[in-house]
Amino acid sequence: MNFTGLLLIAGSITFLLALLLSNIARRMGNNAIFRDYPDNIRKLHKRPVPSTGGLALVSATMLGGAILIPSMMEYMSPGMTGFTYYFAAAAGLIAISGVYDDVFGMSFKPKFIIQLVAAAIVLYGLETQFVAQHISYSETPLAGRLAIYGVLGLWMVSGCNTVNLVDGIDSLAGSLIMTVIFGITAISVSWGVVDVFPFIIPLAAAMLGFLWFNRPPASLFMGDTGSMFSGFIVSVAIIVLGVHATHWMHALSLALLLSIPLSDTIFAIIRRVKHGQNPFESDNNHLHHMLQRYFKGPGAAVLSLSAASVVMISIAILLSNITNITLFFFTYGILFGLFLIIAVTYSIKIQNRDSVLYSHMVGIKKEEPGILTQKADKIRKQDNLESNVPVSHLAGYHHRNGA
User: Fold this and answer.
1) What's the rounded Cα separation, in Å, for the pair 324 and 296?
2) Are 317 and 183 in contact, with CB atoms under 8 Å apart?
3) Does residue 394 belong to any structural domain of this protein?
4) What is the separation, in whole angstroms, between the first and last Cα of the chain?
5) Which of 19, 94, 253, 366 could serve as 319's disulfide partner, Cβ 3.0–4.6 Å?
6) Mind listing the pLDDT tens digit of every residue in the chain (403 residues)?
7) What range does the domain containing 248 cover?
8) Is 180 contained in some domain?
9) Would residue 321 count as lying in a domain?
């Protein structure tokens, strides 16, 4: 069987698995402990929605990978087969932490530590199984290698959390992941690299199956399980692709693949620090929230951000194949200028927000703690009366848009 046929068969099986498992996950979510409850402040969905989609997404992706990887061994680079075991272990750790967070809740610090451990597993696998086959370290000092791995570790942790941050409105995180996978695939084909396909093809097929249930109005959410897992996979795939880059400019261009979620994360951190907030505390001033309010619905907001992601990814594809340094830095300079313009405009919009509305969104009044919790409790109690579903005190505080 040829390579393309192999990918199509594995992708089709994974897609069907994702449809089946997502439907099962939606039915599982009838238990209130697995529901995400609206609060009309940050969570604007109209009714409680199961947040078990991440379980289906992870399961379908892992099963798809188990089908695809053994059949691809003859096509992959030396050492890549061994690396997949480290990658699977790290991705599984991320998924388990996401499940725990969705059910019981987890503060940022333990999540961050778990993400660092997962990143360290991947980096160890890269060092021992894969990188040495492609890059010579004979003239690279140890300090330089440690700095590179520090940046790569931060990239993977950022990948987990940026996708989690943009998972605030129906189908947005999944749509952005699909655009990133498109970019990775296009660059991989142009470079003649197949090593990333065992990661991204199962994820793409599983995400398509999940998005059938996550399209507005969503009947299933991916939760932290799905958002952190998918963010981790694409960030690792970008690193593996970067190892194959023939020029440092080509490797640097890959950072643009995640530019939209990364920009939103940067805006969120700056905004919260400026207002004296914990950078990891939830609010509803993300770009997608503002676009949703502007367009009065999630559909146009998702289309706008997905279109912006496609534009940035198209630029990344072009830059990944040029060798003109002047053109490279000129393009990056224009993009940085646009980023500053958007950042200033965004900051002005935030400053002009109604201060009373703002206080409700971020819960800054110390004398009124738990506004979101109180609203979720009210909806939860009503849901319990109407559907006779046993309600856990754990449900509904943290599933959607983890930060």
Assistant:
1) 44
2) yes
3) no
4) 45
5) 253
6) 677 888 899 999 999 999 999 999 988 877 655 676 655 555 555 567 888 899 999 999 999 999 998 888 888 888 788 899 999 999 999 999 999 998 888 888 899 999 999 999 999 998 887 776 666 655 667 787 788 889 999 999 999 999 988 888 889 999 999 999 999 999 999 999 999 999 999 999 999 999 999 988 888 999 999 999 999 999 999 999 998 888 889 999 999 999 999 988 888 888 777 777 777 677 777 888 788 888 888 888 999 999 999 999 999 999 999 889 999 999 989 998 988 888 788 777 766 654 444 444 444 444 444 444 455 555 445 544 444 444 333 333 344 444 5
7) 3-387
8) yes
9) yes
Count of domains for the chain: 1
Do residues 232 and 39 touch, judged by C-beta distance below 8 A?
A: no
Q: Which amino acid is at 87?
A: F
Cβ partners under 8 Å of residue 192, min gap 6: none
Please report whether residue 400 resides in a domain. Answer: no
Q: Do you know the residue count of the chain?
A: 403
